[in-house]
Structure to design on (1077 residues):
């Protein structure tokens, strides 16, 4: 019986956020004796550090501590320990922190920084990921072999390749032999910024007793705690990590970032806490960004449109460190062919070091990128073969029981349906096609569609937990580990708990901030995993709490536990609501009229473990994910061939998410995610000088979509084929909302004017220059027309 | 090598808040190059944070009410230099008679910035991309400038002297921008090419057309804004403009354009967009 699940319940944090009461890391300034931290960064992309002279800076009154890499030369990272807290022997990108200091004020810190002298000996840098992949003499990390890395990864010694993931199935040559047509293309995407509104803030406090407390705009506080323990060689129980509300994360705050530096500064500053607040420019240059990608693809297809062979090489430009990006390469590697069932596959996914800012997780985790490749390629194929784009896709899509990765793993029967999503989107796009002719001959209309899938990329032992703690009046606190950075998951989790416990929504408290000492554990807040994983944990915690409640009530009412139920805060045997006890009479223990008491305060706990397998190193075979959410997105555009400008008239999406827990929150995710993807598709790109210096480290020149760029119309469909082990049948949606957009847009451009785009971002200038290349006479003809028309 | 630091603080300065123009002029006279004038601060504060400028004092103009009036007389529109852009936009006559200015100001930055940004500041910065410059050029605006010892009025076309430099001496302030009311039947317009719906111009183009004169002005395509008069082409009605005529007009304009390649756009695209917008804006002016 669902009172809340399936309804658009208002967000738990709405009032706090709208009124400005919500606390973010930057607001934390009430810790006594707080110092300001600031770091000096490398001005050279690749160089050996010859000397660091801090004597002048030390003389400035108010400077409390100065640290360099040698103070704590431990390499940090989640999957590959390849990053210095501060550069130790050499610098590997412009923006890398080299020296840091803590001072009584920011002004003092800035003044002192300007007096530090660092001498460098330049080394040859490498920026192009394709060249970096081949290079044996220019190495970003000569000592890569010595680094710790998770056994799931495969770095190639003596190269810049931090990970090589292989996916193999069937016989690729055989597959090409069976094909009537072969298509070969190259696609790319640049590195981009997460562009979250809240720049990174980290406060570190290294206490005299060796305990560590951290407040940080961190997406995954438990991972931060775990990695801090390794970094400072101290038990996890010595460390507390607080993460308040986040002003967006999108993966950019998922790993370990500036927390160790803040702790290191505090340690040197005689145990005073230190606050590091990045400026936007620092956030662009020194904090992690998203991988760039270059891909080459070769597809074999029959005349009827059956794909017989898919051969792909992905090169992921992870910048100077790949601690998290190796897993992007891996996740994109096992899904490298997209949501299709193909007999013969040979795919290689390489994560490669270059001397640029380092990459981390990013909403979509390689899937937005790989579907740009797959779904653009599919468009090119359908056009050449003259097959309907949806019919072509449906001929090849994964169906329940067909293989996902390589040979072994089969799609579960209740996995959801991409075909239904494709149909729903296409119906909303295609009927109107070509009907509306524009007045101006230089305005072209087009539609494009893309299908996709994604599941959470997490280790097989990734876990979630939750507890439910009752209060005297029968209200309850739900504790989970997942962080709130805009998604609204906490509200959905509270809905699940309210229904499970038979409580009014207002009586469930779920805090927006995270505290690793107080809250139940979760692995990370990434990969659209939280509703599924933490949702199951919450449900299990509620079941456990009810078990405790029923235990007591069954004794009091003398009925079997299995007969009991809770509704409207009352516990009673099913069908006999008059025979009830109220929750408040039970949850702190029940007292008989005599004063004898039984039971006790109710704290329910629940866990959920991912059920997956380690993937085979040679073929990629195995079960990589707890679910795959399938979806399709399409756009209808108007393109001005004279200027290259595009207007998105309509954006249609469909996702099979099993069950919609909160329609409004889901729709919010769709609008937010697809606008973010449009922004990436049309304008975002980190641009570097030939020396590797970032040229657009601000929102004046790093263009993200503004409100005026939002499509005029959104149509969203949620398909609900429930997954048995999801909470109420639900699957994740957060990242999915982005994935199809770039390819759908590229396909719509192709549909509109027959110009093929292979590289993102599709700026107006890019379209203009491609029109000139691919349709050399079009623009001059249109210019002529422009002057004729009256 | 000087350390590159991304500052989060502003440099030290004293903030002076005069309440009359005369006080402003006295302070300017006293501090000269050691001072900067502060209007909305939407350009200046960024330059201060980036340590591009290090004035000892900031002279805040926002308390001087005389500099924030807008007046329309029989002959001209007079806009106080410190009038926020958003206020200029509320005056109906601006849209009715000075459409190019209206279109430029409604497209300047975003609404939040327009509440703070001033017209005097937009010109004062002397950015080649200043949106107001192109309309002010075609509308024959005059800039009123004062110092303690002197006052002068110069045509806007003489104001800009290079990228981010202008003719003001260190003791001068812009007090107002005067724009003559255009002849009856005048059409004026402004359009800019940009990378998102709210952005600095890749190129900006203004056009003014009436029975006496047809002129175009450009921003973001040379070190200073440009004014190009095309009255000689005798465009009176739509039929006078065709592909051949346009090509001749463009031949006249093109040699004046001298854009740069930067992160916003290539030179080639800037020139292409300048040409497309010129076609469009001329066509519309004649329709
Ligand atoms: C996010 C963002 C977007 C922007 N987008 C645009 C855009 O699209 N188009 C555009 O043109 N500009 C844009 N700008 C730049 C800026 O907003 C404008 O130039 C604005 O008009 C400046 O006015 P202000 O009052 O803020 O000037 P301030 O910053 O106060 O001053 C600017 C300069 O002019 C001088 N000055 C100010 N008033 C006077 C005066 N009365 N006499 C003499 N000198 C004076 C100051 O000393 C200073 O050097 C943008 C800025 C930002 C931050």
């Amino acid at each position: 019986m669902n009172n809340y699940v399936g309804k658009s319940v208002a967000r738990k944090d709405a009032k706090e956020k709208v009124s400005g009461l919500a606390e973010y890391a930057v607001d934390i300034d009430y810790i006594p004796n707080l110092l300001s931290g600031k770091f000096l960064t490398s001005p050279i992309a690749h160089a050996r550090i010859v000397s660091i002279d801090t004597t002048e800076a030390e003389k400035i009154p108010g400077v409390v501590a100065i640290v360099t890499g040698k103070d704590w030369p431990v390499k940090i990272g989640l999957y590959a320990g390849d990053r210095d807290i501060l550069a130790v022997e050499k610098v590997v990108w412009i923006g890398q922190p080299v020296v840091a200091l803590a001072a009584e004020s920011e002004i003092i810190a800035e003044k002192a920084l300007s007096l530090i002298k660092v001498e460098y000996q330049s080394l040859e840098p490498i920026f192009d990921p394709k060249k970096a992949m081949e290079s044996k003499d220019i190495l970003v990390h000569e000592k890569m072999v010595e680094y710790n890395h998770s056994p799931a990864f495969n770095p190639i010694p003596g190269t810049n390749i931090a990970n090589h993931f292989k996916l193999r199935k069937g016989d690729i040559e055989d597959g090409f032999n069976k094909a009537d047509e072969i298509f070969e293309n190259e696609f790319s995407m640049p590195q981009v910024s997460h562009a979250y509104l809240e720049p990174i803030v980290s406060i570190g406090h290294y206490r005299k007793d060796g305990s560590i407390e951290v407040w940080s705009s961190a997406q995954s506080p438990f991972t931060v705690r775990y990695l801090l323990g390794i970094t400072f060689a101290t038990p996890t129980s010595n460390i507390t990590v607080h993460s308040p509300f986040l002003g967006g994360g999108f993966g950019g705050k998922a790993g370990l970032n500036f927390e160790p530096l803040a702790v290191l500064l505090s340690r040197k500053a005689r145990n005073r806490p230190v606050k590091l607040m990045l400026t936007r420019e620092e956030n662009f240059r020194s904090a992690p960004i998203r991988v760039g990608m270059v891909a080459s693809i070769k597809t074999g297809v029959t005349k009827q449109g059956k794909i017989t062979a898919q051969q792909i090489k992905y090169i992921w430009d992870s910048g100077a460190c790949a601690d998290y990006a190796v897993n992007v390469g891996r996740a994109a590697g096992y899904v490298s062919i997209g949501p299709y069932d193909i007999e013969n596959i040979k795919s290689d996914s390489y994560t490669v070091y270059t001397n640029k800012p380092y990459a981390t997780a990013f909403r979509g985790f390689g899937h937005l990128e790989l579907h740009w490749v797959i779904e653009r390629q599919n468009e090119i194929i359908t056009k050449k073969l003259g097959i309907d784009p949806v019919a072509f896709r449906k001929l090849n899509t994964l169906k329940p029981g067909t293989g996902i990765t390589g040979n072994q793993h089969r799609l579960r029967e209740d996995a959801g349906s991409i075909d239904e999503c494709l149909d729903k989107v296409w119906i909303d796009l295609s009927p109107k096609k070509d009907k509306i002719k524009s007045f101006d001959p230089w305005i072209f209309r087009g539609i494009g569609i893309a299908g996709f899938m994604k599941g959470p990329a997490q280790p097989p032992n990734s876990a979630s937990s939750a507890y439910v703690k009752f209060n005297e009046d029968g209200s309850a606190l739900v504790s989970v580990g997942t962080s709130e950075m805009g998604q609204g998951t906490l509200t959905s989790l509270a809905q699940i708990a309210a229904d499970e416990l038979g409580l009014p929504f207002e009586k469930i408290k779920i805090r927006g901030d995270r505290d690793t000492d107080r809250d139940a554990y979760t692995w990370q807040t990434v990969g659209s995993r939280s509703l599924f994983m933490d949702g199951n944990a919450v449900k299990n915690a509620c079941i456990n709490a009810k078990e405790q409640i029923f235990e007591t009530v069954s004794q009091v009412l003398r009925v079997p536990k299995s007969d009991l139920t809770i509704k409207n805060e009352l516990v009673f045997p099913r069908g006999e609501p008059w025979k009830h006890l109220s929750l408040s009479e039970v949850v702190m223990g029940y007292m008989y009229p005599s004063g004898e008491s039984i039971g006790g305060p109710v704290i329910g706990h629940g866990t959920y473990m991912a059920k997956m397998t380690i993937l085979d190193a040679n073929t990629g075979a195995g079960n990589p994910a707890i679910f795959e959410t399938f979806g399709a997105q399409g756009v209808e555009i108007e393109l001005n061939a004279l200027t290259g400008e595009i207007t998105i008239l309509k954006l249609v999406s469909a996702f099979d998410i099993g069950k919609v827990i909160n329609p409004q929150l889901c729709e919010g995710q769709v609008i937010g995610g697809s606008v973010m993807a449009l922004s990436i598709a049309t304008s975002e790109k980190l641009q570097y000088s030939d020396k590797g210096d970032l040229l657009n480290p601000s929102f004046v020149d790093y263009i993200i979509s503004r409100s005026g760029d939002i499509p005029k119309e959104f149509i969203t469909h949620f398909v609900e084929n429930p997954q048995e082990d999801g909470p109420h049948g639900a699957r994740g949606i957060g990242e999915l909302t982005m994935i199809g957009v770039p390819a759908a847009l590229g396909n719509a451009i192709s549909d509109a004017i027959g110009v093929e785009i292979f590289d993102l971002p599709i700026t107006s200038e890019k379209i203009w220059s491609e029109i000139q290349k691919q349709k050399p006479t079009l623009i001059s003809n249109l210019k002529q027309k422009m002057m004729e028309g009256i | 090598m000087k350390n590159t630091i991304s500052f989060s603080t502003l440099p030290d300065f004293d903030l002076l808040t005069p309440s009359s123009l005369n006080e402003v002029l006295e302070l300017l006279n006293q501090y000269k190059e050691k001072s900067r004038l502060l209007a909305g601060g939407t350009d200046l504060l960024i330059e201060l944070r980036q340590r591009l400028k290090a004035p000892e004092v900031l002279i805040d103009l926002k308390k001087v009410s005389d500099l924030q009036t807008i007046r329309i007389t029989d002959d001209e529109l007079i806009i106080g230099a410190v009038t926020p852009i958003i206020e200029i936009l509320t005056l109906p006559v601006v849209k009715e008679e000075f459409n190019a200015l209206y279109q430029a100001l409604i497209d300047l930055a975003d609404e939040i910035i327009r509440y703070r940004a001033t017209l005097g500041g937009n010109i004062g910065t002397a950015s080649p991309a200043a949106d107001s410059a192109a309309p002010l050029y075609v509308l024959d605006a005059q800039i009123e400038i004062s110092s303690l010892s002197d006052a002068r009025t110069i045509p806007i076309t003489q104001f800009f002297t290079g990228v981010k430099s202008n003719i003001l001496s260190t003791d001068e302030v812009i007090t107002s921008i005067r724009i003559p009311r255009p002849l009856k039947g005048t059409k004026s317009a402004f359009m800019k090419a940009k990378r998102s719906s709210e952005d600095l111009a890749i190129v900006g183009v203004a056009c003014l057309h009436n029975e006496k004169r047809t002129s175009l002005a450009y921003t973001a395509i040379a070190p200073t804004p440009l004014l190009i008069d095309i009255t000689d082409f005798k465009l009176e009605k739509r039929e006078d403009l065709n592909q051949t005529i346009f090509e001749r007009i463009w031949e006249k304009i093109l040699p004046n354009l001298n854009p740069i390649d930067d992160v916003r756009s290539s030179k080639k695209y800037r020139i292409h967009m300048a040409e497309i917008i010129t076609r469009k804006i001329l066509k519309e002016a004649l329709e």
In short: Residues A 700; B 36-44, 61, 81-82, 108-109, 113, 116-118, 120-122, 124-125, 129-131, 168, 173-174, 200 surround flavin-adenine dinucleotide (CB under 6 Å). The domain at 463-609 of chain A is CATH 3.30.365.10 (Aldehyde Oxidoreductase; domain 4). Chain A touches chain B through 42 residues (CB under 8 Å). The radius of gyration of chain A is 28 Å.
